[in-house]
Design goal:
The complex is a heterodimer of chains A (about 250) and B (about 475). Chain A has about 250 residues and is of the alpha/beta class. Chain A is built from nine helices and seven strands, in the order E-H-E-H-E-H-E-H-H-E-H-E-H-E-H-H. In chain A, strands 3-2-1-4-5-6-7 form a seven-stranded parallel β-sheet, with helices on both faces. Chain A is globular. Chain B is α+β, with helices and mostly antiparallel strands and about 475 residues long. Chain B is about 25% helix and about 25% strand. Chain B is built from 14 helices and 21 strands. In chain B, the strands form five sheets. An eight-stranded antiparallel β-sheet of chain B has the order 16-12-14-13-19-20-18-21, with helices on both faces. The longest helix of chain B is centred in the middle third of the chain and has 14 residues. The chains are: A alpha/beta (about 250), B alpha+beta (about 475). Chains A and B meet through helix 5 of A and strand 2, helix 11 and helix 14 of B.
Chain lengths: ~250, ~475
């Protein structure tokens, strides 16, 4: 259960190998989160992350989960709730893809869309149902600033996150009054394994900063957080820029 | 034709249907950590039995007037029995000074019913708006613990509805284990459906009170230690932000129920008068940061100045002395939506240095507390999870938004634990499950009795899940 200061006892991560997810799990484990389930495709990174969390005193389980196996999400995820309440589910899986290559290979583009959007839709719905039965808990969905406006260098990824972002907002509204809270997280450019080797954007951030933002947002029951927080104001302007002007801003930035 | 009423022609027979559950978001009095449950309001023990039988996989817990600060009367995803509709006084024995009640009878209701006959409730906490069921489940205490013990020590008998729907009558003599697991057991052994209490004899409804300003914590402790034996009720209120030589300054209030001849002439005509209406209601308009270091410092200063330097006897009303905050309905709203928490601990008398260390750290860190109350407990209650035990008990009231609060409280937990003390479950909203076991050495014994009474774990609450009770 969440306590009066907003600390949580148990965490389920979908996409347990993600840098942001592991940073968040570490941050929570340093507080009061002592039961953690990492779900994801088996990887050394996830195992290493699990060991690190165990070192912080958490009881950690690693579960095989593939975002693309939509049909299996119910069987994989629903039983995890039978073993004890889960206070927070962090949906952190996602692929960036390779925009230029994916434009030439529609099937590769479809995989990005299926992972980031379809897989997130099926797994979120399974999780939401389980949380609703519990009568409490939070679903944290990792979106991206790329969801805000399409741009030529990442619109496949961006549109998948835009779909997810809209889905999560609506899901959050649908769950009003059930005790379940959905929080959308829109980080800027995050320096992580996903973006390794790419040029940094202005206002780039780190997995640790995103983790800090998530923990703080959970305490406040925030519906939407930006990391860094100033991005909220940057995008409140960018959102309304006419397309030609927006294109110029993007050009200048690149 | 037989006598079966159902077949008497032309006559309508009413069968009380179980009311339909409603989905509700619940919190404790501190307004933190809400969860959603189905809430049903039964009016008979049959309806309770039916509701318990149909509780479902997330179980059930009883709730009274919701004055516990944290989450013991919430049950996320499950069923909550609102017992405020079970509020009949079933019988009174004026010779013996006993009363039999349903669990939803509030202490205010008991006072209104019994004061005209010269009886007061055996123990009252800082509010009259608690039910008898809750008072037993939390084994509450008041300003008279050193003289009267805890609430359950005045319970002669109770009927407990168990998970299987059967009702067992418990007394401390005939079934001490289940009785003392239920008293202070936070509603986890079953549902109390009837209780028989021993009331306290009083001549008047006024309290002869002496209030004295104390310069610091040592002063407060010394005065309380010296005068406890002379007064049934005693308590100190501290300015929790004062530091240095004024650390723990405040005032001590001590009192006894006034005798008839202590009343002035004009009050003797109606010596047992009691008019318990709230004076005002708090609107729900306060921002979460209103009670902060600055505003609390101002209030502390004003309160301290108001307390007289020398002990000055005066007559107080029951409401004024025991339940000042009851004068304002929904006073918890003043903390805003973010809510607040109460932190109450007890440490043995020998650990006075721990007490001082805690008071000092809170003051230096400047964590604002609206109400800071110090008192001396008498011997422990036999309840397995009852809170009071010989020693000093201190209560803080912290807004949850206070910067650095989580770390401060964790440090306090460690201090209390090291001193062999404990935290009060009726107020807890954030304790660590591991610390709980160390604070309550009889937890295992409690679990054993509970497992026998409720083998399938039907009775659960957010608190029991959080703490692994």
């Amino acid at each position: 259960m969440k306590d009066s200061l907003g600390s949580v006892q148990s965490l389920l991560v979908l996409g347990g190998g993600s840098d942001i997810a592991l940073a968040t799990a570490r941050r929570l484990a340093q507080d009061k989160t002592k039961r953690i389930i990492l779900a994801g495709r088996p990887s050394e990174r996830m195992e290493a992350g699990a060991d690190l969390l165990r070192g912080l005193g958490a009881e950690v389980r690693v579960v095989e989960f593939d975002a693309l196996e939509f049909a299996g999400h119910d069987d994989t995820l629903a039983p995890l709730f039978a073993e004890g309440d889960i206070d927070v589910v962090l949906l952190a899986f996602g692929v960036l893809g390779d925009q230029a290559a994916d434009e030439r290979d529609p099937m590769a583009a479809a995989k990005v869309a299926q992972t980031n959007y379809v897989g997130a839709v099926t797994s979120s719905l399974v999780v939401a149902e389980a949380l609703k039965k519990q009568g409490h808990g939070a679903l944290v969905v990792l979106s991206s600033v790329a969801a805000e406006r399409g741009r030529k260098d990442n619109f496949i990824y961006g549109s998948s996150k835009a779909g997810l972002d809209t889905f999560a907002q609506g899901l959050g509204d649908a769950l009003q009054g059930t005790g379940v809270h959905v929080m959308v997280v829109r980080p800027g450019f995050v320096e992580s394994k996903m973006t390794a080797g790419r040029p940094k954007s202005p206002m780039s951030t780190t997995p640790e900063a995103v983790a800090e933002g998530i923990v703080d947002g959970l305490r406040r029951d925030a519906d939407l957080i930006w990391v860094p927080a100033q991005l909220r104001y940057v995008f409140s302007g960018l959102r309304h820029l006419p397309r030609p002007a927006f294109r110029k801003v993007v050009e200048k930035q690149a | 034709m037989g006598t079966d009423p159902a077949v008497v022609p032309g006559k309508q027979w009413e069968v009380a249907a179980v009311p339909q559950p409603r989905r509700e978001k619940l919190t404790g009095w501190g307004r933190t950590a809400p969860s959603v449950a189905q809430v049903v309001r039964p009016r008979t023990r049959e309806q309770i039995a039916e509701a318990v039988a149909g509780a479902g996989p997330r179980g059930v817990v009883a709730r009274g007037l919701g004055r516990s600060y944290g989450d013991p009367a919430q049950n996320a995803g499950g069923l909550v029995l609102d017992l405020t509709g079970m509020n009949r006084i079933l019988g009174v024995d004026l010779d013996q000074g006993t009363v039999e009640v349903e669990p939803g009878v509030s202490l205010q209701q008991l006072m209104q019913a019994m004061l005209p006959f010269g009886y007061f409730v055996p123990v009252t906490p800082g509010t009259r708006y608690v039910t008898v069921g809750g008072a037993i489940g939390c084994d509450i205490h008041g300003k008279s613990h050193h003289a009267d013990g805890s609430f359950a020590q005045h319970v002669l008998e109770l009927d407990l509805l168990l998970a299987d729907g059967s009702v067992r009558t418990l007394t401390p003599e005939t079934e001490p284990e289940l009785f003392w697991a239920t008293a202070g057991g936070m509603g986890l052994t079953g549902v109390i459906v009837r209780a028989k209490l021993r009331m306290m004899r009083v001549e008047t409804s006024r309290i002869q009170v002496e209030t004295q300003r104390v310069a610091n914590l040592d002063d407060a402790m010394e005065r309380m230690t010296l005068t406890d034996a002379d007064y049934r009720f005693s308590v100190a209120s501290l300015d929790n932000l004062a530091t240095g030589p004024s650390l723990g300054r405040g005032w001590v209030e001590s009192g006894n129920f006034a005798t008839l001849d202590q009343l002035p002439e004009k009050l003797r005509g109606n010596p047992l008068a009691f008019s318990p209406k709230p004076l005002a209601a708090m609107p729900d308009v306060f921002p979460s940061g209103l009670l902060n270091r600055r505003t609390i410092r101002l209030m502390n200063e004003a309160n301290f100045r108001r307390a007289p330097k020398d002990a000055r006897p005066h007559l107080a009303t029951i409401g004024g002395f025991f339940h000042p905050l009851d004068a304002i309905h929904d006073w918890n709203r003043v903390y805003g939506a973010a809510g607040f928490l109460q932190y109450q601990f007890v440490v043995p008398f020998a650990a006075a240095s721990t007490l001082r260390r805690i008071v000092e750290r809170v003051a230096v860190q400047g964590a604002p507390s609206f109400v800071t109350v110090l008192k001396r407990f008498g011997p422990a209650s036999p309840g397995y999870l009852s809170f009071p035990a010989d020693g000093w008990t201190l209560t803080y009231d912290f807004p949850t938004g206070t910067p650095g609060l989580a770390g401060l409280l964790r440090w306090m937990d460690a201090q209390v634990l090291e001193a062999g003390g404990r935290l009060y479950l009726a107020k807890d909203s954030r304790l660590d499950a591991g610390d709980l076991a160390a604070m309550y050495p009889r937890l295992e014994a409690f679990r054993k009795v509970r497992a026998e009474a409720d083998p399938h774990g039907v009775f659960v609450s957010d608190q029991s899940r959080r703490l692994g009770l």
